[in-house]
């Protein structure tokens, strides 16, 4: 087999597979460095094409034998795989190959983690296991036999027999190879059952290393809640007799939806009050739901090709967001999601890595598991639902499932289901899938004789490879308040379809105050000339929780950018408005916590850049701190009261109410620590009986350059707990005072527990440091050099994680010429390195432009 040189793949070149697979039978004889994989695959000609080229993908496979219809063959090696001459009609391919799971550090295909065998096949890992048409539009039922002395042997589907040293699994549902999974190890199960809507009992298991079994209960409850929710809200029932989840320590991503056998990064399964924070509990619940929901959106209906990734990911993220809204607070969830879009997705969409929700070309598909595909993809589903209404949405999704069950579909198929079910023409809406960049919406107002007119103008800035942009259809949820704060026009969805468009409201007694883009009704940047007084008015009176929060956010941002540029102290509109919000006991504590928490330094840099000012990382750091001190000084009594009163009483519970109270108490603590020398945080750390309270106290101390003792105590207590120690590395590097951050991080990199080959630990330390905005962007460029050295060290072993981490450089264009030069020099150093992976190579080329 020849190495495939990096090649650009284009959506426009899609061609159907010449051969389809009727059935796959695999036997695995597991051995750490020499696992044998025997395959028996029934191929049939694809009636949809006359092409009959027989090509199988494969990478790093040692072929021991290959047969077609029982006769030995010698396939021809071609880039990325092999070709062979085959009969005109159906035939059976058999091969025996050898692979080396213990030597597989890239964590794609079959690999080992802590003595257990596991697989990761999305997107193109199956070709590292055996020869196969490794593309998602080839779907087949799989039968798998595993031979090993290990006690637990798992694969997809239903159990089909087991004995001494072997087990067989049968998956009747046709699936693409990327959903294949195998796990073998010395594992223990946390078990439960679920009875589906039609009365079938499903055996549930969460498989973990011995010692972790008492940390699975929360994930199991989340799984059962997800299964019920999908039945109730989408009418989707589970379709196998068993559903297994396995926790793995070495994993490049969060989790994977393999049919009937989800594999999770252990950080997203294992949780107990003393080791996991509230945020981790919430994330676990969401990711368990996400992977489970893929059973219908991704597995039963899959993607025709990888350009359609958002078909499964955008929809599944949208579904997990709906689930979390139903399980917790819908308002808080919407603010969290919108905030993620506005920070991280807008950052991607406005930089050198911008790409459409459905990209049109790629070199390495692993580089496109992005926040744009996932989160902006989910926003597109939300907009569709807003445009067609709840009933239309449900009808369309039902039609999509009915039509495409068992198939590999496209965005065109998805939109066609909506068009047919609702009668709506979605041709303009489709542009959202192909046009990259965040539309900027400017607003002007007119008031005359009781008529109020809002005029919007949309403009999408150019993005790499896309200079001309067309107007998009934008659902704009708008409400109007009168000057005494009453709502005079409740939320109305205006549909903007042109570059410039006006909407009028008649019969108003006085000039209203508009509340625009309620509930973040479209992923756009709203640009409206307004005053701090009006923002404070909306913070006090808006009935839409997202816009109420956004008004507070805008006040905070204007205080922070002023502090970071000319050192101005925050004004009364912000400080008084914040005080009133904090004291308003009718408001959910979680909501108040969101209003109280300040934008990050990275977000401030983004806001300054968007306003045409070059961000100065040190000034931002100092300005943010000054604003924190001003808030704490102005509201010390209120904050102290909240810190004390909001602590939930009774045993720790990770539910939304208690977590919300703790988040408000801890947001107050972070501010108080700025002015009390750390006294309250030390007390809280010493008394804490759960991880949320300990971490909040430790973080507050580290942020003021204190907390050495607490950090040591935490380290000594938790050094045997890998997930808790990941957090320690991240906090230390992320919160060290800017001028010490690099030294601290370098010292941590020499810590015996810095297992850099484990992606979670690598991300905790290197990613933690890059999150330390002023530390990473130190003027001498040594922060950039440090990260570059580590990317180059990791790349030969684990290209996917190295490439993912390289995104810390995507914001280079924001900074001054000196810093830009230093970052670009690092990117060029990477680009010029011999034997660079396709993954990292593509990323740095795109960032260099
Ligand atoms: N489909 C998974 C995420 C995932 C993607 C790629 C992976 O390896 C390249 C692993 C997992 C999800 O959406 O959860
Ligand atoms: Zn997913």
UniProtKB/TrEMBL annotation:
The alphabetical list of record keywords is: Aminopeptidase, Hydrolase, Metal-binding, Metalloprotease, Protease, Zinc
Q: Work out whether the entry's keyword set contains Hydrolase.
A: yes
Q: Signal peptide span per the entry? A: none
Q: Which residues form the Aminopeptidase N-like N-terminal domain?
A: 105-179
Q: Which GO terms describe its biological process?
A: proteolysis
Query: In what residue span(s) does the Peptidase M1 alanyl aminopeptidase C-terminal domain sit?
Result: 532-848
Q: Where is the Peptidase M1 alanyl aminopeptidase Ig-like fold domain?
A: 437-528
The transmembrane residues are: none
The UniProt record lists the EC number as 3.4.11.2
The family database entries (Pfam families) matched by this protein are listed as:
DUF3458 (PF11940), DUF3458_C (PF17432), Peptidase_M1 (PF01433), Peptidase_M1_N (PF17900)
Reported cofactor(s): Zn(2+)
Limits of the Peptidase M1 membrane alanine aminopeptidase domain: 218-429
Catalysis: reaction(s): Release of an N-terminal amino acid, Xaa-|-Yaa- from a peptide, amide or arylamide. Xaa is preferably Ala, but may be most amino acids including Pro (slow action). When a terminal hydrophobic residue is followed by a prolyl residue, the two may be released as an intact Xaa-Pro dipeptide
What InterPro entries is this protein classified in? Aminopeptidase_N-like_N, Aminopeptidase_N-like_N_sf, PepN_Ig-like_sf, Peptidase_M1, Peptidase_M1_dom, Peptidase_M1_pepN, Peptidase_M1_pepN_C, Peptidase_M1_pepN_C_sf
The protein's superkingdom reads Bacteria
**GO terms of molecular function:** alanyl aminopeptidase activity; metallopeptidase activity; zinc ion binding
- SUPFAM superfamilies from the UniProt entry: Leukotriene A4 hydrolase N-terminal domain, Metalloproteases ('zincins'), catalytic domain
**What general EC class does the enzyme of this chain belong to?**
hydrolase
Stored NCBIfam families: pepN_proteo (TIGR02414)
Task: Name the family the entry cites.
Answer: Belongs to the peptidase M1 family.
- Name-wise, this protein is Aminopeptidase N
Q: Lineage in the entry?
A: Bacteria, Pseudomonadati, Pseudomonadota, Alphaproteobacteria, Rhodobacterales
